[in-house]
């Protein structure tokens, strides 16, 4: 039986687990919704030994990678995957970045270091931009009163629907894709304002007022998000994985979420 061990059963990894279970895989996982305690080395070691594939979605902790620090000596000699972030590219001033672009110069220095370590371990590293999907989208921010339109002309970012991440990971497994980095992003980088405006249009309500970043009262994390400006190219994933996003732009992605509501 094909077996996957997931470290960190969060929003995206849960959907990967569900998709592979639907294909007949056995999936073990750490995390609050998983069947393994991360610190139970005996149980995790047994799961690693049985696994044909290992995927980590655990973010950096105190500047280091918890999975590699604790279990890096056990997980070699099998298919490895890591859910990383396109934040490793830092600010590109609106330019396109791809897997050959420099990493480590942005605010996500710890993530970039973990990204590099997983590459060195022989993993398929999936670099993800803003993740959205049911229960985690512009609609939720609008409902919670947390949606903003910030007056930053020219600021853009990329995003990816969670369903397309699942498809990309499964494609990498199915093709036994070479180790290395893969950007999983949609085809149309655009501003956060545009996404919020489209979500409001679908809800039939007026968008929030345009504000300066100073007046918006953003958290330090949110301000950091707006400090970076880049477009993420997805050509390698299309070529090597045979992957095509089912939701190539925010328009299709948002429409699909409203259709499920």
Can you characterise this structure?
This protein has a single domain (78-260), classed as Rossmann fold (3-Layer(aba) Sandwich). It has 10 helices and 12 strands. It has helices spanning 11-21, 41-50, 66-71, 109-120, 138-143, 162-174, 192-203, 220-226, 235-241, 250-260; strands at residues 3-7, 26-29, 53-56, 79-85, 96-97, 124-128, 130-132, 149-150, 159-161, 180-183, 210-211, 231-232. The protein has a 6-stranded parallel sheet with strand order 2-1-3-4-6-10, sandwiched between helices. Strand 1, helix 1 and strand 2 form a beta-alpha-beta unit. Helix 1 packs across helix 6 (162-174) and helix 7 (192-203) packs parallel to helix 10. It is globular and about 55 Å long.
SS field, number of helical segments: 10
Give the termini separation: 36 Å
What's the CATH superfamily, by name? NAD(P)-binding Rossmann-like Domain
DSSP helix fraction: 25-40%
Unreliable stretches, pLDDT < 50, 5 or more residues?
A: none
CATH class: Alpha Beta
Mind summarizing the main beta sheet? Answer: 6 strands, parallel
* Class of secondary structure makeup: alpha/beta
**Any idea of the CATH topology?**
Rossmann fold
Query: Which architecture does the CATH hierarchy give at level 2?
Result: 3-Layer(aba) Sandwich
Shape: globular
**Mean pLDDT over the residues:** 95
Number of domains: 1
Spatial strand sequence of the major β-sheet: 2-1-3-4-6-10
Percent of residues in beta strands? 15-25%
Query: Topology as H/E string?
Result: EHEHEHEEHEEHEEHEHEHEHH
Overall strand count = 12
* Computed CA radius of gyration, to the nearest angstrom: 19 Å
